[in-house]
Amino acid sequence: MDCILFLQNTRGLRSQLKDSVPVAGLCPQAGPYGIQDTLRMGFSSVKNELLPSHPLELSEKNFQLNQDKMNFSTLRNIQGLHAPLKLQMEYRAAKQIQRLPFLPSSNLALDTLKGTDESIGFEDILNDTAQCEVTGEPHIMTEYKLGLL
Amino acid sequence: MALSHVFETPVSGFNFENSTRNILLENVLDEGKTKAPKPLKTGTTIAGVVYKNGVVLGADTRATSSEVVADKTCAKIHYIAPNIYCCGAGTAADTEKTTDLLSSNLTIFSMNSGRNPRVVMAANILQDILFRYRGMIGANLILGGVDCTGNHLYRVGPFGSMDKVPYLAMGSGDLAAMGILEDRFKVNMEVEEAKTLVCDAIHAGIMTDLGSGNNIDLCIITRRGVDYIRPYQESEYKQRRQEKYKYKPGTTPVLTENIVPLELELVHEMVQTMETA
């Protein structure tokens, strides 16, 4: 798995041509009642939500997802179904090791599994969450996570 | 500051929140004939040559910000690994950060595996990073180094293209430099011949291109080690100060003087003996 972590799996794209990752576009963020939540999200504008303002916005949002999908697909083709299945099970278990939503979690297990503890990218340099200027209200964030909001 | 509309911690990495605002601002500003500030470009001449025992990389040292020379002694040959160096043309910040990222990743790799990184590995990582951002990162790089498989020179373009070549020039002065290289390049040159060739190529770029100038830096990489000569050749148009520009004491007349003594009160005195044995 080591070689995949460093380099991007661009040749695996061929097997992905049939089923593409559904891109979660910039649809208006529906509140709990299904319509635009003006109080919390502000005014909506159709133009803002239909097109991404930056050419890289969509591709960056889904980059990790697409890479993972391609890697798992290649792994399945080479080693059989058990390989990606086992790995995804481990990822799911590691993803659940989190602190409360407003506290910073180290994600140590998840990082080690993904191999991001051995590489440095722009996610580690720019917009460091430890130095973010805005925080959310703890109660609201917990309620959102639990789905009560 | 706790805000009530933030539901999840923000994701790290690039943040595109302000791109709509920037586009709107640019449209408004252009009608008022003002422009957004341009990033610092290097407007460069960089060149590289593979010779018998290694690789010679050369670069000029001028960094321009539109029509003004912003830095006369810019270092364009960046360290990647003990055996790999990289010349960068394009946006100065982009080349520096990308080469820094590459260098960090290769250091982690060599610590993990206990091996020296190969040049082809560095080129592939660069290619991945640059292609991911579809050319938005304006970095044209010449990667040169010596590893266990030989002496290599790679060109990596801003959109992620990679090219393995024996001699190479990039930057705004690359046409002139390429002319010199095409004329005098031979396979398996000696080190002095290679150094003169690269120096002449960069010199041609400096003479013909406004964006290149000042000194010439050379970096010679061999199996035994690296010789980073900075500057190899200084510009013949270096300015010397004509006079002394310091002011004599008494140039500014003193009009009034007002002395206010600070009244300090001794609050606490503690004596600690030092061991002077």
From TrEMBL, chain A:
Segments traversing the membrane: none
UniProt KW keywords: Chaperone
GO BP annotations, alphabetical order: proteasome assembly
GO CC entries: cytoplasm; nucleus
Chaperone keyword on record: yes
Sequence similarity: Belongs to the POMP/UMP1 family.
Protein name: Proteasome maturation protein
Organism: Electrophorus electricus (Electric eel)
Automatic annotation (TrEMBL), chain B:
Active site residues per record: T44
CDD domains linked to this entry: proteasome_beta_type_7
Cellular component terms per the entry's GO annotation: cytoplasm; nucleus; proteasome core complex
Keyword tags: Cytoplasm, Hydrolase, Nucleus, Protease, Proteasome, Threonine protease
Gene3D superfamilies attached to this UniProt entry: Glutamine Phosphoribosylpyrophosphate, subunit 1, domain 1 (3.60.20.10)
Superkingdom: Eukaryota
Localization per record: Cytoplasm; Nucleus
Pfam families: Pr_beta_C (PF12465), Proteasome (PF00227)
UniProt GO MF annotations: threonine-type endopeptidase activity
Protein biosynthesis is among the record's keywords: no
Catalytic activity: Cleavage of peptide bonds with very broad specificity
A Gene Ontology biological process term: proteolysis involved in protein catabolic process
Proteasome beta subunit C-terminal domain span: 240-270
Family recorded in the similarity comment: Belongs to the peptidase T1B family.
Subunit structure, interactors included: Component of the proteasome complex.
Main function: The proteasome is a multicatalytic proteinase complex which is characterized by its ability to cleave peptides with Arg, Phe, Tyr, Leu, and Glu adjacent to the leaving group at neutral or slightly basic pH. The proteasome has an ATP-dependent proteolytic activity. This subunit is involved in antigen processing to generate class I binding peptides.
Protein name: Proteasome subunit beta
Provenance organism: Electrophorus electricus (Electric eel)
